[in-house]
Amino acid sequence: MNEIAVGLHDVLLDVSSRLSAAACDRKSPMHTPVIGTADGDLRIMVLRACDPHLAALRLHTDARSPKVALIEQRPEIAMLAYDPAAKVQIRARGQGRIEREGPVADAAWTAATAFARRCYLTSAGPGSEADQPLSGLPPELEGIRPTEEQLLAARANFAVLLITLTELDWLYLAHNGHRRAKFSRGDAGQPWQGTWVVP
């Protein structure tokens, strides 16, 4: 990327392109961004989809996770993704929304692999205490691809986290001088307003 010639519109296209590609590519370093919640807690999550206009990001979560209850009460979310080869960092902020039922959650569930859906068959929710190291999965499902019938019970534990983006921060690291741009908007229906900032 020629950082000198890049314009603000190009930066938005770069963010959209990188996050959209990362959602489809397990090998992308941005496939697993850091997600922060209003309590200051951080965790790695898998990016499942990025709206091409940067309106929203989609991730999946266990409906029993403590972060789900937190997001429903305090929906502020932050995201951090970094690609070391490209030397590009993307930070974002927005409002999180949990969807357990409905067309978005149903489509996400249907599109997920059997192994991905198997994660929601654990006997207890994420963060539950245990006497020993364990996956929480029923022993008969450890290491195997479950059948559709076995996965029926998992659907109740599955939820989608949608993040409506309202702030973006793009940083390109270069030995001859970094470049940074910031964008914001009131809601997903408004155009992004951007400015260059000192890195």
How is the topology of this model organized?
Layout: H1 8-24, E1 34-37, E2 42-44, E3 47-50, E4 56-62, H2 66-73, E5 76-83, E6 88-99, H3 103-111, H4 114-118, H5 148-151, E7 158-172, E8 179-184, E9 193-197
Report the CATH C-level class: Mainly Beta
| Strand percent estimate | 25-35%
Can you tell me the number of structural domains?
1
Give the helix tally: 5
Shape: elongated
Question: What is the CATH homology-level superfamily?
Answer: Electron Transport, Fmn-binding Protein, Chain A
Q: Would you give an account of this structure?
A:
With 199 residues, this protein is of the alpha+beta class. It has a single domain (8-111, 159-197), classed as Electron Transport, Fmn-binding Protein, Chain A (Pnp Oxidase, Chain A), CATH 2.30.110. Helices cover 22% and strands 32% of the residues. It contains five helices and nine strands; from the N terminus they run αββββαββαααβββ. It has helices spanning 8-24, 66-73, 103-111, 114-118, 148-151, and strands at 34-37, 42-44, 47-50, 56-62, 76-83, 88-99, 158-172, 179-184, 193-197. Strands 1, 2, 3, 4, 5, 6, 7, 8 and 9 form a nine-stranded antiparallel beta sheet that branches. A hairpin with a 5-residue loop joins strand 3 and strand 4. This is Pyridoxamine 5'-phosphate oxidase Alr4036 family FMN-binding domain-containing protein. InterPro entries: Pyridox_Oxase_Alr4036_FMN-bd (IPR024624), Split_barrel_FMN-bd (IPR012349).
